[in-house]
Design goal:
Blueprint lengths: L7 E7 L9 H23 L6 E9 L4 E9 L7 H16 L9 H11 L6 E8 L2 E4 L2 H11 L1 E17 L6 E6 L6 E4 L5 H6 L4 E11 L5 E12 L1
Parallel strand pairs: 8-10
Antiparallel strand pairs: 1-3, 1-4, 2-3, 4-5, 6-7, 6-9, 7-8, 9-10
């Protein structure tokens, strides 16, 4: 595939009251969310391996609507995730747009795509992504479909085991991420203050967390846990 076929273009149209200009904060937020979605997609496809792709701006235009084109660049030649990452991102958007919601959707990626669509209708007139001639509009309607896909279907009491990593206790956030032996690739766990010392001491270890497990629509595996008083580690 020619190198320029790996390019993806983000087009942002300003509201009439902004006189054709995009707010800096919105521009930065959109690029940051797109970058996060691409990185998370690569992580899912590579099985959580160290990211190999970096993204370079190859075109930038302000001619109302504003547009920025980026392309992935490989840091090594061991693997090539350029096409799979971009294809997967667009496939995810098309699946949600068509209402094809199932448990295999990359929900972490959908969170970033939802954040991209948030300013549309409020601070942006329109927002589109284009890849190899395919264009998808990140509209308010698509945002609602993403929110529906992200809504938990059910909550069950249970437990799950995994490696505890990425803990955040700043500002009483009280959340950590575990990587289970089986099932979901990873899931976020929210815990009460009473378990803070246990959570901190569990970093880098396999733990068993018990509490309320939230399941997405059509998924056999939980995506989030509200940890209760019981705790174990090895």
């Amino acid at each position: 595939m020619p190198e320029n076929n790996y390019r993806i273009t983000l087009t942002l149209e300003a509201l009439a009251r902004e006189e054709g200009h995009i707010r800096l904060s919105d521009f930065v937020t959109e690029l940051d969310a797109l970058g996060n979605a691409l990185k998370k997609t690569e992580a899912l496809l590579s099985g959580g391996a160290e990211p190999d792709l970096i993204y370079r701006v190859v075109s930038l235009s302000h001619s109302s609507p504003a547009a920025v084109t980026i392309e992935p660049y490989r840091r090594t030649l061991e693997s090539d995730f350029r096409a799979p990452v971009l294809e997967s991102l667009f496939q995810t958007l098309h699946q949600v747009d068509r209402g094809e919601v199932n448990g295999e959707l990359p929900y972490d990626v959908l969170e970033d795509l939802k954040n991209m669509a948030k300013p549309v209708g409020r601070r942006l007139a329109s927002l589109t992504l284009e890849y190899r001639g395919r264009v998808i509009r990140l509209s308010r309607e698509l945002k609602l479909k993403i929110e529906l896909a992200l809504a938990p279907e059910q909550v069950e009491q249970g437990s799950i085991r995994g490696m505890l990593e990425s803990i955040n206790i700043h500002g009483s956030a009280n959340v950590f991420r575990i990587y289970p032996d089986y099932g979901p690739v990873k899931l976020n766990c929210h815990f009460p203050d009473s378990l803070r010392s246990e959570a901190v001491s569990g970093v880098g270890r396999f733990v068993e967390v018990r509490g309320s497990l939230s399941f997405r629509v059509g998924s056999r595996h939980p995506h989030e846990v509200e940890v209760r008083k019981e705790w174990g580690q090895r």
